[in-house]
Amino acid sequence: MLRSTTRRFAGFGGRGLRPASTLAFVETSKEGAILPASLNTLYAAGNLGNQIDAVLVGSKAKEAAAALQKLDVSSLNKILVVPEESLDDLLPERVTPVVYDLLQKGDYSHFVVPASSVGKGFLPRVGALLDLQPICDVTKILDPNTFVRPMYAGNILATVESQQSQKLISIRSSAFPAVGAGSNSAAIETVNASNTVNGTEIPPIKWEGANLVKSERPELGSATRIVSGGRGLKNKETFEALVTPLADTLGAAIGATRAAVDSGFCDNSLQIGQTGKIVAPELYIALGVSGAIQHLAGIKDAKTIVAINKDPEAPIFQVADYGLVGDLNELVPELTEKLKQ
């Protein structure tokens, strides 16, 4: 990292200091499963040192609340359940009024969300309604008022001190461990969904559907092993012939650079980097990845990076723990075969 900066966000609207308490948004699937990023977010919320209320939304929210009671979150005080089917798709236009209403009535000092597409969708809206500046992609909590977040594709870590009466924070899940199994004494409370903001009803919105890539592989954002392909693989056929067998052998998720995605080698849901997913696996194997700064921003928290590239001057070798220079078409099949043995 080049340097550290400190910025201060002053409070708005003349609101006074609030009692220290945290509201955490727990993201779930339509089936009611707590998504992995929310487990990291709950751990981060615990670092604030406040008692935590968690909010779950959707028709399966009560099932998710029961699962939440089986997690080791000692500071969890209350689980707020909003069991509305209209919230199943987590559309920001519908989630925003619910969260805004809770923050207004609950008088919370902190609100934390995962820095996922869902969190990034509604947190700015909540901030605009409350006239507050969100602090996004937090990677470290120094104290309840001071946070660290990356800037400029991760080249700078900014230390941000917020003096706002309410702190709106999104958590980069790869920077925090996940809470584990256990138990807590949190009570479950049902809350009615709000469909208005300051007396104004939200405009009608309809969910049309989604085309999702289904796979039995580990989810990319939480995978412990990832095999990733870049532009050096030349085409889709080579990508599938080299990346897929190696990933199958390791039980790994598959990732890609933006260049590989833009060239049509794979689906854009596999993109890793500044404009894709941020990952923190135990093992990251980069095949034909040059190491553009935007891609490195997405893998900087990987524990071990292995790079295979024919270009000995490729920037990826500057961050790799192990590097192998040579022809991918020869080295990768040989590596895959040896790992099978």
UniProtKB/TrEMBL annotation:
Cofactor: record remark: Binds 1 FAD per dimer.
Annotated Electron transfer flavoprotein alpha/beta-subunit N-terminal domain residues: 22-201
Keywords: Electron transport, FAD, Flavoprotein, Mitochondrion, Transport
Function field: The electron transfer flavoprotein serves as a specific electron acceptor for several dehydrogenases, including five acyl-CoA dehydrogenases, glutaryl-CoA and sarcosine dehydrogenase. It transfers the electrons to the main mitochondrial respiratory chain via ETF-ubiquinone oxidoreductase (ETF dehydrogenase).
Quaternary assembly: Heterodimer of an alpha and a beta subunit.
GO BP terms: fatty acid beta-oxidation using acyl-CoA dehydrogenase
Subcellular location: Mitochondrion matrix
Family as reported in the entry's similarity comment: Belongs to the ETF alpha-subunit/FixB family.
Keyword Zinc: no
Protein name, UniProt field: Probable electron transfer flavoprotein subunit alpha
Annotated coiled-coil segments of the chain: none
Presence of the UniProt keyword Mitochondrion in the record: yes
Cofactor names: FAD
Binding site for FAD: 231, 257-258, 271-275, 288-295, 309
GO cellular component: mitochondrial matrix
Organism this protein belongs to: Kluyveromyces lactis (strain ATCC 8585 / CBS 2359 / DSM 70799 / NBRC 1267 / NRRL Y-1140 / WM37)
Gene Ontology molecular function, alphabetical: electron transfer activity; flavin adenine dinucleotide binding
